[in-house]
DNA sequence: TCAACTCAGATTGTCGACAATTTGTTGACA
DNA sequence: TGTCAACAAATTGTCGACAATCTGAGTTGA
């Protein structure tokens, strides 16, 4: 199993609640779990560290970082900005003739997923939509940062709230606005979408 | 020498022109250069890879990524958003009573540095100012992303243009606005500052 | 009782060696 | 001459072993 896959799996387990914040990740344990050498595990841990998901203290190993309430709020602010930027950029590129097939496919997948009550399915479809937008926006740097922030937004219960409030329609609509190439509108809708979820989260 | 330091040094050499985009980074060479084992070098390379500075192809090694004109423009857009967010957040925290000593020190350092004609000195002072703002904003995630984007902004010649246009005064003024706790004003000034430099860059 | 010390156990950090992969070159053959 | 297989060189990928460091339990002495 490759380091990136292991990192991905750790994130999944974190989102599913199998790994808890503060929990230590001991290299030897992970070696057994994934049947990999320590080298591999170390690379995976560094990958996670670079994303800010685990903290790596010298000679003391790795542990999953806590997410405070304030962290969550700021992550959502960040998400609002970035999702807005990505949507606007993607719309601009499509208006300039970029390929939109991947985005169309992602929208369809999302609509289908929203008809079932399967959270995992919905989450994956949503991830694909974001990936398609990042891809069309066409900037590797932005894509990377979006990826990182998305994981943190998930940890702030963003995805859960989104699923419960049934925002799939709005998300699909944002995708269609991007396809239509309406930059300003796409950005505004995207930001508003994040803001709604953010507010519903802050009610707790 | 620790992996993080090596990564930092590579970035410095990249900014100084000693390393060029597209250049391959062979592990054995770096081992000799830094007198470190391959393990260490590998970690440094992964660190750089996580920041999007080098690309890491399986079995084919690492090379420094190119920055296209479009990449640069989008990075500057991203910088504008993030610098605005950081400034606003920091101002809000200071208005709520957070410690501003580090920011004051950074401003003073910047003012002093701007009186000499030393680019390296100015760059460092500027980095400290950004670090102080990120620190006061108080979100580790945001700090990390700011760091990453700042390096990319540098590669887009941002720092160079800043130095040449003598924007130190404006930067210091932004810092003072943050200390005054004026959220909206701080954000607007910060974004405007990035926009100015971005425009002067796009004239080429 | 409690602070300081010692020492085993657990864990991470680093090195050297070898396996796997890619790349460039040589030479045979149509 | 051009193509292709085989080989050699360079480079990266992975493993095992040992060194360095941290943690906590037990011990000693005031």
Commentary on this structure:
- 2 copies of one chain form a homodimer.
- Chain A has 204 residues and is mainly alpha-helical.
- The first copy, chain A, contains 10 helices and 3 strands.
- The first copy, chain A, has helices spanning 3-16, 27-34, 38-50, 69-95, 101-115, 119-137, 140-155, 158-165, 168-179, 183-202, and strands at residues 24-25, 54-57, 61-64.
- A 3-stranded antiparallel beta sheet of chain A has the order 1-3-2.
- Chain A is globular and about 50 Å long.
- The model of chain A has no long low-confidence stretch (mean pLDDT 94).
- The A-B interface holds A 43, 46-47, 50-52, 65, 70-71, 74-75, 77-78, 81-82, 85, 89, 137-142, 144-145, 148-149, 152 and B 43, 46-47, 50-52, 65, 70-71, 74-75, 77-78, 81-82, 85, 89, 137-142, 144-145, 148-149, 152.
- Chain A binds a DNA duplex (30 and 30 nucleotides) through helix 3.
Radius of gyration of chain A: 18 Å
What pattern of helices and strands is seen along the backbone of chain A?
A: HEHHEEHHHHHHH
Contiguous runs where pLDDT drops below 50 for at least 5 residues of chain A: none
Name the structural class of chain A. Answer: mainly alpha
Q: Could you give a short account of the major beta sheet of chain A?
A: 3 strands, antiparallel
Number of strands of chain A: 3
Spatial strand arrangement across the major sheet of chain A? 1-3-2
Indicate the percent of residues in helices of chain A: over 70%
- Number of contiguous helices of chain A: 10
Question: What is the terminal separation of chain A in angstroms?
Answer: 40 Å
From the spread of the alpha carbons, the general shape of chain A counts as globular
């Amino acid at each position: 199993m490759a380091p990136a896959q292991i990192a991905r799996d750790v994130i999944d387990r974190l989102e599913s609640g199998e790994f808890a914040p503060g929990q230590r990740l001991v290299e030897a344990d992970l070696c057994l779990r994934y049947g990999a050498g320590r080298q591999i595990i170390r690379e995976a841990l560094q990958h996670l560290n670079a994303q800010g998901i685990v903290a790596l203290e010298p000679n003391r190993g790795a542990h999953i970082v806590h997410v405070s309430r304030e962290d969550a709020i700021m992550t959502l602010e960040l998400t609002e900005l970035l999702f807005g930027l990505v949507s606007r950029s993607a719309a601009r590129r499509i208006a300039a003739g970029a390929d939109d097939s991947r985005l169309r496919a992602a929208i369809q997948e999302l609509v289908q997923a929203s008809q079932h009550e399967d959270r995992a399915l919905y989450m994956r479809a949503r991830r694909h939509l974001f990936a398609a937008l990042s891809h069309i926006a066409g900037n590797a740097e932005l894509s990377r940062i979006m990826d990182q922030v998305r994981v943190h937004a998930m940890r702030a219960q963003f995805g859960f709230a989104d699923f419960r409030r049934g925002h799939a329609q709005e998300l699909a609509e944002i995708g269609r606005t991007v396809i239509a190439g309406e930059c300003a509108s796409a950005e505004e809708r995207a930001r508003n979408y994040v803001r709604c979820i953010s507010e519903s989260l802050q009610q707790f």
